[in-house]
Amino acid sequence: MKKLILLTACIVLFSINVFAHQAFTLVSGQKKIVTEAELAKLEKDATIGKKSGVGLTFTESEIRLIVVTGPEDDMLSYRIQGMRNPNLIVPSGAKLKILFVNLDGDMKHDMRFGHVIGEFDIAPDVTETAGTEKLASHEEKDPMQSEEFVLKANEDGSYKYFCSVRGHAKGAMWGNILVGVKPGKDMKMSVKPAGDSKMDNMPGMKSGEKMSEKNADDMSNMPGMRPGEKMPEKKPDDMSNMPGMKPADNEQDEMSTMGMSSYFSAINYPVPRDTMMVMALTDFQSARTGPNFFTGMNMMQYGVTSRWTVGAMFEGQKIPGLPATYGGFRVNSYFKVSPHDHLLNFTVYGEYEGLNGAALYKMEVAGFGGEDLEGPLAAARRTPVRTLELRAIM
C-alpha cells in the first residue's frame, strides 16, 4: 500500500512538472514614476549587450536592462538599446533586472516573459508567465509610468517576451529571449506592420489605409447603410429603433408599447485574470396584474484565471406602497474550456440562487426570474426559493 501511495505521489509530481511550465520566476517587482532626465541617467547604467544582426548577446549572470515602448509610428513594439524587439541571448540561469517604461501617450502596455507556442492569440494567456502589470499611458509633460522587476531564468530554451494587452502581441509587440541556447536560422522574428499611419492597428483598417474625409452626416460606411445614405430624421424621444421597443402610437402610451423579451442572457465571457468587475443594475418592470415596480442588483465578478471567473450577486426591489425588499443572493462560476478564441467558445456555467419568494429581478441564463408578487410581502420574504443551475453555453 505504501509503495502504491509513493508511486502515485511521484506520478502527480511528474505531471505538475510537465504541464506547469514556468520558464521564468518573478523575484520582485516595484512600480515607479520616472522623468525623461532620470530615464537618460538610468540607461547609462544598463548592461551593454553585443549587437549582432537582430540579436543582443549577454554573457553576464546578472543583466540590467532598460526597456521602453516604441515611437508613435511603431507603438506596438519595444526598444532595447536602440533595437526594435531584439533577440535577447542570455546564459543559463541568468537573472535579469529590468526597468520597463511606458512612453505611450495613448495606450496601456506591459512586458511578460514565458513559453509561447505558435502564433499569439488576440488575448494571450499569462498564467505561466512572469513580468509587469499593465502600465498606464501618460500625458506629454507628465512623468512616465514604469515598473522595475527581477526575473530568474529557470531552464534553458527559446522563449518570448510580449505585451499581453488585447491585440498588442498579435500586432507585433513581442520578441524572442534565448536562455543558454543560440538562435536557429529559421527563428521567427516580430515584423513591423506595413504603413506608417498610427491607425494601422485599428480593427477593420488595412495596412497604410487612412481615414477618408467625409461629410459629418455621411453614414455610408456604417453596417446596413447604402452609399450616400443619411441617417433619418427622428424626434429626440423616438426610441422605436431600440432593441425590444415597438413603434409608439403617441407620447401618452409610449411606455405601454415596450416589448420585453422573455429571455435574458447573462455575461458568460471570463473576466481578465486578477480583475474585479462591479456593476449596479437597475430596472423598471411592468407587472402583469399588480402595480409596476423597480428592481436592482449589485453584481461582482472576479477573474481567478484568464478562463475562470467567479462572482456574487445581491438583489432587491421596491413596489410602490411597500418597503424596499431584499430578494436574495446568487453565486456563480463559469469556465471557458478552450484557452484560445474560436468562432464558437464553449463555456461551462454554474449558478446557485439563494432567493426568496419576493425576488422579482429578471436575471437568468435563460428564461424569466420572478414575475408579479402574488401574495403578501412578509410571507414571500420567508419563503425560500433555491435553485442550482448548470449550463453548457456555446
Q: Any overview of this molecule?
A:
It is a single chain. With 394 residues, this protein is mainly beta. Helix content is 8%, strand content 34%. The protein is built from three helices and 19 strands. The strands form three sheets. The protein has a seven-stranded mixed β-sheet with strand order 2-3-7-13-12-9-10, with no helix packed on it. It is elongated and about 80 Å long. The two termini are 44 Å apart. 24% of the residues are buried.
What is the average of the pLDDT values? Answer: 77
Physical arrangement of strands within the biggest beta sheet: 2-3-7-13-12-9-10
Q: Give the biggest sheet.
A: 7 strands, mixed
Helix percentage: under 10%
Principal-axis shape equals elongated
Q: What's the short version?
A:
The protein contains 3 helices and 19 strands.
Question: Which terms summarize this structure?
Answer:
single chain, mainly beta, 394 residues, 6-stranded mixed sheet
Outline the fold blueprint.
Layout: H1 2-19, E1 24-34, H2 36-43, E2 50-52, E3 55-57, E4 62-69, E5 78-80, E6 83-84, E7 87-90, E8 95-102, E9 112-114, E10 130-131, E11 144-153, E12 157-162, E13 174-179, E14 276-285, E15 293-303, E16 308-318, E17 325-336, E18 347-356, H3 377-381, E19 384-393
Parallel strand pairs: 3-7, 4-8, 7-13
Antiparallel strand pairs: 1-11, 2-3, 4-5, 5-6, 8-11, 9-10, 9-12, 12-13, 14-15, 15-16, 16-17, 17-18, 18-19
